[in-house]
Each structure stands twice: as structure tokens, then as C-alpha cells.
Structure to design on (183 residues):
């Protein structure tokens, strides 16, 4: 199977901050675990990064890359059994997107913009990279996502662009992000 990139949007719980020692500790442990599957050499480029929305600091976006879906599934089982309850002490789930794209194809800088929506030909930028969301959604997940994202049915394009350029799509959203932690 080809490499994948996953984007997990979550929201900090009331009273939690992205720079709290407790949150950074659990995030660091999660990234160490995930990196043991993908990039065990600390000198290698990061494949697991948490970003914070500069316009709404309670919004977070984790971008992770795996060499295959099978490797992601294996790492996800270990993550869920060891860290999910601790992570959910700090955040609430928003949505999940998956791209059939290698994380190395994206410029994951200190600041970037993630734009997602329908009809990308009307809003995507040349300097970024992106892909179609291929995450299989249940009917309930689509309902939950639509409450968060205000999207109608259809294929969703996700664009990652260095810096903070670009317009928000008519149907979709735009996150202007700063890096919190990566490994």
C-alpha cells in the first residue's frame, strides 16, 4: 500500500492549553511511540507534528505520516491502548482526514495553512500540496463532521501550504497554524 498522511482535528478541553507541561508530556510520549514505527532516528525529518490554530488557540491539528496503512493500523492500536484516555483528558475529537500522499510531499514548516473543502479548482494554491480525503466515513461520522465543518456531500480536497496564504473555500474551512511539537 502507498504512504498515507493523516490529519486529526481536535479541540482543547476547557482549562487546557497547548503549552501545558502535562499536555506536552503526553504528546511527546505519543510522538515517540509513533516515531518508533516510522522514523526511529531522531535526526530524520518529523512525521508526527501537532499544530495550533493561531486564530483559535483551542483548535489543534495533528499531522502524521506512515509508510503504509498497515503500519498506521499497527501504530494506532498501540497508541489507542496506551495513550488515548490520557490524550482525551486534554482534547475533544473533531474530525479525521486521510490522504493517499507521502508526508514528505508537504512542506511542514513552523507555520502553515491547511485548507479543506469542495471544488478545489476554485481555491487551491499552486505552492502547496494536497490530496483527496479518502478516510471512510460512517453516516454518523459524516453528520458529526458536517456539524463541525459545514460541508455538503462530496469529495473533500485538503491543501497544505507553507505560511498563512490562501482563501477559505466557500464550503469547507481554513486553519492558519503554528507548530506546537513534532517528532
Amino acid at each position: 500500500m502507498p504512504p498515507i498522511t493523516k490529519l486529526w482535528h481536535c479541540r482543547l478541553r476547557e482549562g487546557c492549553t497547548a503549552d501545558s507541561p502535562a499536555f506536552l508530556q503526553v504528546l511527546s510520549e505519543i510522538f515517540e511511540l509513533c516515531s518508533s514505527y516510522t522514523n526511529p532516528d531522531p535526526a530524520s525529518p518529523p512525521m508526527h507534528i501537532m499544530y495550533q490554530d493561531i486564530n483559535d488557540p483551542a483548535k489543534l491539528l495533528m499531522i502524521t505520516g506512515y509508510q503504509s496503512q498497515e503500519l498506521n493500523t499497527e501504530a494506532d492500536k498501540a497508541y489507542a491502548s496506551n495513550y488515548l484516555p490520557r490524550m482525551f483528558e486534554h482534547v475533544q475529537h473533531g474530525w479525521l482526514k486521510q490522504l493517499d500522499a507521502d508526508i514528505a510531499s508537504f512542506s511542514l514548516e513552523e507555520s502553515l495553512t491547511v485548507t479543506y473543502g469542495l471544488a478545489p479548482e476554485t481555491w487551491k494554491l499552486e505552492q502547496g500540496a494536497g490530496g483527496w480525503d479518502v478516510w471512510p466515513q460512517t453516516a454518523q461520522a459524516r453528520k458529526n463532521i458536517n456539524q463541525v465543518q459545514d460541508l455538503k456531500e462530496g469529495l473533500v480536497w485538503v491543501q497544505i501550504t507553507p505560511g498563512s496564504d490562501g482563501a477559505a473555500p466557500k464550503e469547507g474551512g481554513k486553519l492558519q497554524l503554528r507548530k506546537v511539537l513534532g517528532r
About this structure: The CA atoms of residues 93 and 146 lie 14 Å apart.
